[in-house]
Amino acid sequence: MARQAASGSVRGSRSGRPVMALLDLLGRRWSLRILWELRGEPLTSRALRTACDEASPTVLQARLTELREAGFVELGEGGGYGLTALGRELCEMVMPLNRFAERWKPSPSPRLRGRDERRSR
To answer: How many CB atoms lie within 10 A of CB 26?
Structure first.
């Protein structure tokens, strides 16, 4: 990630600003979920896949590689993945957003409720 920002080429941004690189990485499918699941303790690939609702092993490994290259995740001696100090710091920064989301929890809009009701029939 740092290499992307330094080179000026960040997916979805012409500026190459570090915040854009971070948001791009965190916005990729499963990235935040992986970090969230690792916030408590290291997990093996299999345990992480189970925690991530059986995410595709290919996608999961791609995200783990990206998160490792970014310095947020590391492969431990026992073979499990865990957060680095930087990864723990990032998770601490996300916690206020999680608390806000828990308070916010909107009920689905009438338009979305109708769609959900049609699916359940």
So the answer is: 16
